[in-house]
Amino acid sequence: MKRCVLLLAALSVAAVAGCATPAMRQPDSSPQEAAAARYAHPGPSAITLYTMINNRSGAGAHSSMMISAPSQRVIFDPAGSVRAKGVPEIQDVLYGITPAVADFYERAHARESFRVRIQRIDVPPQVAERAIALAQSHGAVGQAQCTQATSGVLRQLPGFGALRQTWFPNTLADQMATLPGVTERVLREDDADDKTLAVAQFETGAAQPRP
Q1: What is the SS3 assignment for 160?
Q2: What region does 16 belong to: left with phi over 0, alpha with psi -120 to 50, or beta?
Q3: What is the mean pLDDT of each run of 10 residues along the chain (211 residues)?
Q4: DSSP states along 88-147
Q5: Residue 211 located in a structural domain
Q6: Is 179 exposed, middle or buried (0-12, 13-18, 19+ CB in 10 A)?
Q7: Strands across the sheet containing 183-187
Q8: Phi and psi for 63 in degrees, rounded to 5?
Q9: pLDDT at residue number 11
C-alpha cells in the first residue's frame, strides 16, 4: 500500500516537473530530421544525469541524461515534457544537442518550484556510444517511469553496474554521486513554473544564455 501511495505521489509531481502525460506526446520526428540535426560536441565523451527536484518538498520529480559520444550528443528524456521546434525527438531521444540546446534544456527545468541537480562523468567513447544505442532501442517511456528507464540504461554500461534500477530520482542521483569521477552542480532559477514560456523564448530566439 505504501508503495502505491508513493507511486501516485510521484505521478502527480512528475506531471508538473518533467514527465509528459500521454496527451502531451508529440509525433516523432523523422530519421532524416534527426540525422540533419546531428551535433558532436568537442571534448571527452561523457554522461550527464539530470535530476529535477521539488524546492518545497525536496522530492525528486524527473530523471533524464545527456550522452556525449564521438558520433553525436543526445538527451535521453524518458517521458519528458520539454520539446522544442528545431530539436528533433524520436522515442524520447532528443537530437542536435548543441551548447544552446543543452543550456535551454537545463534552464527550462529549473523553475521557481524546481531545481536541477546535474551530475557529469567522463566515460570511454565506446561506453558513450553504447549508452546512445541503448537509449535509442529503449522506446518511448510511460508517465512516471523516467527514472526506471534512465537507471535501467545506465546499469547496463561498463562502470555503472553497481547502480540499482529504481523508480525514484533522488535515489538514482545519490547512487550516481558514489561513482568515482562524478562532478556535480545545482541549477536554480526563479522563472514561473510554466515551461511553455521557456520553450517559446527558445523557439523565438528570445532566451538569454547564462553569463
Answers
A1: coil
A2: alpha
A3: 44 48 73 98 97 97 98 97 91 96 94 96 98 97 94 98 97 98 96 78 66 53
A4: -EETTEE----HHHHHHHHHHH--SSEEEEEEEEE--HHHHHHHHHHHHHH----TT-HH
A5: no
A6: middle
A7: 89-90, 93-94, 73-76, 60-68, 46-54, 114-122, 183-187
A8: -130, 145
A9: 47
Q: Which of 1, 10, 2, 9 is nearest to 147 (CA)?
A: 10
Task: Classify residue 123: in a domain, yes or no.
Answer: yes
Residue with cell 532528443: 94
Taking the C-alpha atoms of residue 144 and residue 163, their distance in angstroms, rounded to an integer, is 19
**Terminal CA-to-CA distance of the chain, rounded, Å?**
47
State the cell numbers at 91. 522515442
Q: Is residue 118 part of a domain?
A: yes
Per-residue 3-state assignment (H helix, E strand, C coil) for 32-56: HHHHHCCCCCCCCCEEEEEEEEECC
- The answer to whether 121 and 45 are in contact (CB under 8 A) is no
**Domain annotation covers residue 210:** no
Residue 90's DSSP bridge partners are 93
Packing angle, helices 195-204 and 99-109, rounded to 10: 160
pLDDT score at 195: 75
pLDDT given for residue 211 in this prediction: 53
Residue 46 in grid coordinates: 561523457
Residue 14 domain boundaries: 2-204
For the whole model, what pTM was predicted?
Answer: 0.87
Could you tell me which residues are beta bridge partners of residue 54? 114
According to the model, what pLDDT value does residue 22 have? 52
